[in-house]
Specification:
The complex is a heterodimer. Chain A is an all-alpha fold. Chain A contains nine helices and no strands. In chain A, helix 4 packs antiparallel against helix 6. Chain A is elongated and about 65 Å long. The N and C termini of chain B lie far apart (63 Å). In chain B, strand 9 and strand 10 form a beta hairpin. By secondary structure, chain B is of the alpha/beta class. In chain B, 37% of the residues lie in helices and 23% in strands. Chain B has a domain of 154 residues: P-loop containing nucleotide triphosphate hydrolases (Rossmann fold, 3-Layer(aba) Sandwich), CATH 3.40.50.300. The chains are: A mainly alpha, B alpha/beta. Chains A and B meet through helix 5 of A and helix 2 and helix 3 of B.
């Protein structure tokens, strides 16, 4: 009986959280429209959320591209198809690895930072102080951060993909001896702007939206103690990562299923 | 001493306030009148809901029953826009000071001005520096909040609270955790600011000596109601047991020393049996 009631309480709490998150999103979106008047705040946050994440994205993208080059070559060479290496690397990155890995790294680097920052602002009464100064924290704090994450994530994913393709070239052409012209022309031949690039971009926009929403909401909803903020930060990374992987499956099955 | 019974003398009037939170009743019929232009101290033991009272005055919480009037307006029934307008006439100094940690001292004090006015930069600078001069921190304008001591942080918070020249300044536990010198500065500032800028001050605190040294009027909360109120002089000579225990800091009295528990001997004995 006790475990049943615990399960019930867990379910009720989860639904309540979901409800709060939805209301939070609605309020943030309304505030986001107003904040566009003060664009400077958004720019500051794009720097904090986006620019400071560039290094980890570039390094990860380079290594993922290099690994793809290596693994792709070893598999393709058995079939004498190493000329398709450029295509394999580019498709893997634009369709899947670019958006998904960027979103996971973004959740870990920028998402956790957003949650911790907002949670600590709550714990140190900075949000309450803004309210008492007749300044709406949703407008001043949440909306710029939300917009910044939403804008930065697709750009970071594009950067990841581009660097990854260079990484594949570095290994495939530079080390393993695939012809450079073949590497690029296979890519040019096989990658479609709509099917691959646009769908990948849509994915990264969706992931950016969801990860930033989760990160900002978790910070806002955090219990205002050091333990509460640490739990909220962990939850951001865990929930955002799972959401990205789940949504990726959903979006892939919608986009890439031939009817 | 103003006659707090005359309506025009009251800036804030709390009538029959009832409020419960998470199953605990916090207030059960609280009546408080804050006289205009004076320093009023709200005192009481920790956890009696004295800081929560400021959230009602600022409209961050809504009462279950009763009314909160500030300058003649009923705070719980204001819509969001009117509430925000009213809050522009209130300054608040939080216990944690709540300075915005990503802004300098100058920008923290300028924050309300930038948010609510479109004054030219030169005028903002003049206003901010005059407030910082008042609290003695004009020289610290370019420091970040993390570089300030506890007492300095509170003074910046005070400068920010008065940046818009409000009608009312609320202080939440302004003396807690300060060294004697910083405490003396804050005590002096609260009085000076109140008189120089012709404001009304509400000081929530449990420091009896400091509060009595600056307050014109004292409310003592306890047991979900107002236990006693009067001038500091009246409070010191009070006949009420509740008030005397608090004012003199006696460990036992109407507020029991022991948290409610079973009989001590029974408790020890039963523990032994269970093991």
């Amino acid at each position: 009986m006790n475990s049943v009631s615990l399960l019930g309480r867990w379910a009720i709490n989860s639904v309540l959280r979901l409800g709060r998150a939805a209301v939070f999103l609605a309020v943030t979106l309304i505030a986001s429209v107003k904040i566009l008047r003060r664009f400077r705040l958004v720019v500051q946050q794009v720097f904090a959320v986006g620019v400071l994440t560039v290094l980890i994205i570039v390094v990860s993208g380079l290594f993922v591209g290099m690994v793809l080059g290596l693994q792709g070559y070893n598999t393709l060479v058995d079939f004498g198809a190493e000329s398709s290496l450029g295509l394999v690397v580019a498709l893997s990155l634009t369709r899947e690895l670019g958006p998904v890995l960027t979103a996971l790294l973004f959740a870990g680097r920028a998402g956790s930072a957003l949650t911790a920052e907002i949670g600590l602002m709550k714990a140190t009464e900075q949000l309450a102080a803004m309210e008492m100064m007749a300044v709406d924290p949703m407008e001043r704090v949440m909306a710029p951060r939300f917009l910044a994450g939403f804008v930065a994530m697709p750009l970071l994913a594009a950067m990841f993909t581009a660097i990854g393709i260079v990484g594949g070239h570095l290994i495939g052409v530079g080390v393993l001896g695939v012809d450079s012209g073949v590497y690029w022309s296979a890519m040019q031949e096989g990658v479609d702007v709509y099917d691959d690039v646009l769908n990948g971009a849509i994915k990264s926009v969706v992931f950016g939206f969801v990860v930033t929403w989760i990160a900002v909401f978790e910070g806002y909803d955090a219990v205002p103690t050091s333990e509460g903020v640490s739990r909220a930060t962990t939850r951001t990374v865990v929930i955002a990562s799972l959401a990205v992987l789940g949504l990726d499956f959903l979006l892939t099955s919608l986009m890439f299923t031939e009817v | 001493m103003p006659d707090a019974t005359r309506p025009q003398e009251r800036l804030i009037e709390i009538r029959d306030l009832r409020f419960s939170f998470g199953g605990n009743q916090i207030y059960d019929g609280l009546d408080v009148a804050i006289p205009r232009g004076k320093v009023t101290a709200i005192m009481g033991p920790s956890g009696c809901g004295k800081s929560t009272l400021l959230n009602f005055i600022g409209g961050r919480l809504r009462p279950d029953r009763g009314d909160v009037l500030v300058n003649g307006e009923s705070v719980p029934s204001l819509n969001r826009g009117d509430l925000f307008d009213l809050r522009k006439q209130m300054g608040m100094m939080f216990q944690s000071s709540a300075l915005l940690t990503d802004l300098t001292v100058f920008e923290n004090v300028a924050f309300p001005l930038r948010e609510h006015t479109s004054l030219p930069e030169a005028l903002i600078k003049t206003l901010v520096l005059s407030k910082l001069q008042l609290v003695g921190l004009r020289g610290a304008r370019s420091l970040m909040p993390s570089e300030l001591s506890g007492g300095m942080t509170r003074r910046v918070a005070l400068a920010r609270a008065i940046a818009l020249d409000p009608l009312l300044v609320m202080y939440d536990e302004p003396f807690t955790g300060l060294d004697p010198i910083s405490m003396g500065i804050i005590v002096k500032l609260i009085r000076e600011v109140n008189d120089a800028l012709e404001m009304t001050s509400v000081v929530v605190t449990h420091d009896v000596a400091e509060a009595c040294s600056i307050a014109d009027y004292v409310y003592l909360l306890g047991n979900k109601k107002v236990v006693a109120h009067g001038t500091p002089e009246q409070m010191r000579n009070t006949e009420s047991d509740d008030a005397r225990q608090f004012m003199a800091g006696l460990p036992d009295g109407p507020v029991a020393y022991h948290y409610p528990a079973r009989d001590y001997r029974e408790d020890l004995f039963l523990e032994d049996l269970n093991e």
